[in-house]
Amino acid sequence: MRDQSPRRQNPRQQGARPNRRNVLFGGAVVAAGGLAAACTSNSEKDDPAPAAQAGSLAGDNDKPGTQVTLGFSAPAADHGWIAAIAKSAEAQARKYKDVTFKPVEPTNDINQQISAVESLIQAKVNVLVLLPNDGEQLNQVARKAMDAGIPVVNLDRVFPDKLSYRTWIGGDNYGMGVSAGHYIGRKLKGKGVSDPVIVEIQGIATLPLTQERSKGFADALKSYGYSVTAKQDAKFTVESGNQVAANLLQAHKKIDAMWNHDDDQGVGVLAAIKQSGRKEFFMVGGAGSANAMREIESGGGVLEATVTYPPTMAASAIKLGRLIAHGRGMADLVELRVPQSITLASETVTKDNVDTYLPLGFES
């Protein structure tokens, strides 16, 4: 969930994932979404003095204000998470009478996305919300927008140059690993397991986002005296997820716990597990898809939890873009302007709280 590899960057901070698709805004979704919604009125006549903003009522920022145009660009929706990103942004923009939403054709072609962003710069949008196919390769066009006086809200896949964006908002890949590791570590420790077999199914092993997830997982497990027994990457696809899970099941006659980085590829992982008939272990998923949450809700299977990487971050990016265009900050903060970066929390969704998170899940 991350950064500069072409096309498959993140389910969350890297490139688009193949096939269906690397939760929801987790506590942060509620937090960031709620934060962005909070503040002061957007109408000029009601503008409070700056010193009074910290005490303004949450929700005031949703009142109609100056008309603004928000440009939006993202990769093609070739998997569930990216599809949810686009839907989330558009749905949020529709909630504001003072926002004109100007999306460009989604694409996985770097040059086409650069051209699309340039068209938004030429159109002189007030703010540009941009989820790049590749942060490094779109860095210059984002900088071009900033130099033209158009603030850029960098969504998830970060640009290497901080001068290329006004605000970054995205998920926490390291935190995903930590959340999964703590769930597994606590449960195994509670059962008194001293030398567990823990397997990990990654996305694309060479991506920074995957490496961050794996590091967080290993660090959390270490606090319980545990370590990963075996790990293999599944390319973020259903087909590879199925094959990798089958291979791991065959290689390990007994497994205590499994962490799968991505709920989209998890469709294939779960299919392989069900086909094997194995039930001696429990599994934690990643990203927070609706189908994974429904599986958790129904119970009876190996999937007990998923850790979130919320596509609802796109809705919050729209909120942030609107606040930036209006020159406002977040009422829950003392500062007068939107922060430079916001990292969303990775929440752990279990049967105990799945009803709360299910409405935020995306379809794989």
TrEMBL record:
Subcellular localization(s) per the UniProt record: Cell envelope
Residues covered by region (Disordered): 1-23, 40-67
Pfam families in the record: Peripla_BP_4 (PF13407)
Keywords from the named record: Signal
Keyword Transmembrane helix: no
Sequence similarity: Belongs to the bacterial solute-binding protein 2 family.
Protein name per Swiss-Prot or TrEMBL: ABC transporter substrate-binding protein
